[in-house]
Amino acid sequence: MKSAFSLGESNCESLGEFGASRTRALCSALGFHERDTLAALALFRLISSSWAERPVGAQPPFRNDITDDGTPFEFSVGFEAKKPELRLLFESQLAREETSPRSSWEAGLELQRQLQQRGEADTTRFDSIAALFAPPANDGLLRFSLWHAAVLRPSAAPLFKAYVNPEIMGVEHATTLVGDALARLNMSSAWRFVQGRLDGKARLPYMSLDLEASRQARVKIYLSATHADAAEELLAGSANFARGDAGSWLRRLTNREGHYTKRPLLVCLSFTEDGKAPAATLHVPVRSYLSSDEEALRRTVPLLPDASAAQLTSAMTALATRPLSESRGILSYVSLRPVQGRVRVTTYLSPGAYSVAADHHSSGTHPKG
Predict the structure, then answer these.
(1) How many helices (H) and strands (E) does the chain have?
(2) How many CB atoms are closer than 10 A to CB 8?
(3) What are the helix (H) ranges across 134-244?
């Protein structure tokens, strides 16, 4: 069975046009004011500049691990306050070169240079570790080399984050690379926390850095878990999770306990320079364990603030091309982060530029948050 995402070969729409229409539709569904919608569209034009002119067609012009179907960007919406927060995760590409992890790396570095020149990002910390994560010459089997995320903020420039691949030299070298990176960032306490949770089973598939210079700028380390109990162990000692939180939320979201082998859970540990215990986020790949987007929505809604249920329903409906009961994968992940007695829920929404089988699962674990 196909998911909600299906566009025929006769479609002449460009990726830029498609993404702009999806962005506007999503902003409308979330009840954004026109000024916020225009800010979101301007942000999309910026992040899509390297591939905006490529036609949508029936197949993606380059493969990536951001979405199951190869769409090079993904929306996420954070629900905590009355006004939802919109983010974009995306991969840059050099417009006139054959797509590869190397060309994505070079295009991402060029984007960062532009952001630095415009005063919208600070790459000092990234530059100090970049050499560790640059893709090797034989990069054909890599899932990714460099991604970025942008967070829309009211009355401020977007916050940009860079994602690097700790497994760039192979899974077996990820621990060494992350340890070396945190040493260069003078975050030895963060490495001790992470190292104490590595048992030979948890992978280190992603690392991200806020591209800003403030003391509140974060470094995030992602660990994978294929069992609910393993996720609980990874979350233990974090500043915001209590024992049992993860298991309870997993049962409510996925109606299952135990193993998560189709696609692993992700635990994100967020560190700052203060050396304190990290704040943690649990990322749940709901589209791998539920039968439809309708079921995913139904199970997510009870976790949301009251006003947010209607917003998420409208957002998913705006991105759908068939009833939610017949689609699977518009809502791909749900993440949960306790914040001062509340739960911040973030939902990850696939734009669906291409066709994707509903039971397809890409090789990656996918970064979030």
Answers:
(1) 10, 10
(2) 9
(3) 174-184, 188-195, 228-235
Burial profile 124-156: b = 16 or more Cβ within 10 angstroms, e = fewer: ebbeebbebbbbeeebeebbbbbbbbbbbeeee
Q: pLDDT tens across 145-204, in order?
A: 999 999 998 778 899 999 999 999 999 999 999 999 999 999 999 999 999 998 777 899
Q: What pLDDT is attached to residue 221?
A: 98
Is the separation of the CB atoms in 316 and 330 below 8 Å? yes
Closest CA to 89 of 30, 23, 161: 161
Residue showing tokens 């060494």: 176
Closest to 87 measured CA to CA, from 312, 286, 278, 368: 368
Q: How far apart (Å, rounded) are the C-alpha atoms in residues 7 and 69?
A: 11
Q: What per-residue confidence (pLDDT) applies to 3? A: 33
Residue 41 class from Cβ within 10 Å (0-12 exposed, 13-18 middle, 19+ buried)? Answer: middle
Sorted by where each begins, the domain ranges of the chain are 15-349
Q: How many CB atoms lie under 10 A from the CB of residue 98?
A: 9
The closest alpha carbon to 335, from 257, 267, 262, 269, belongs to: 267
User: 184 — phi, psi (to 5°)?
Assistant: -65, -30
The reported pLDDT for the residue numbered 88 is 97
Q: Which run of H or E residues covers position 249?
A: helix 245-254
The confidence score (pLDDT) of residue 367 equals 55
What angle is formed at CA 17 by the lines to CA 112 and CA 70, rounded to 5 degrees? 65
pTM for the full predicted model: 0.92
Residue ranges in the chain whose pLDDT is less than 70: 1-11, 61, 96-97, 355-369
